[in-house]
Amino acid sequence: QRRLLLDPEFRARVLADEPTTSRFADANTMISTWHKMYVLPRDLSYEPGYPDSIAGIAEAAGMTPREALMDEALKMARNIASKSPLAMRLAKQAYNVCENMPQRDGYRFEQNITEQLSHTEDAKEAQRAFAEKRKPVFKGR
User: Are 56 and 50 in contact (CB under 8 A)?
Assistant: First the structure.
């Protein structure tokens, strides 16, 4: 999966699929409002400027906003793909389950998953990799 995210042909195929309309009015607006779309930075800014928008990023890089958005989305996908597959699967499950729970119950559910993950091979590999200053090699166990 990670190889696909790095493949320029994959990026080109997705970009070739030009959206024109959507079933949802909000999506149609999003397709054309790149200057109002932002990538969330690590140090969250509550007042991002035009240079931080997809339109601004695209302009600075000399590409279209769709290309800039694709690059940012692929960057985010590669980051997620570099994580433990087991941890990502359980995080997604926790999000979906907790979304409609009272906050206290959701927190307890999430803490149970965190505790389960702490006993996995991937958790031990993450700790070893951190101590050895290298990237972890996850096995999904």
Answer: yes
Contact 125, 138 (CB under 8 A): yes
Per-residue pLDDT of the chain (141 residues; tens, 9 = 90+): 567 777 788 878 877 776 666 566 666 566 667 776 777 766 666 777 888 888 899 999 999 888 898 898 888 888 888 888 888 888 888 888 888 888 888 888 888 888 888 889 998 998 899 999 998 988 888
Contact 54, 69 (CB under 8 A): yes
Cα(53)–Cα(33) distance, integer angstroms: 10
Instruction: Give 78's contacts (C-beta < 8 A, 6+ positions apart).
Output: 2, 5, 6
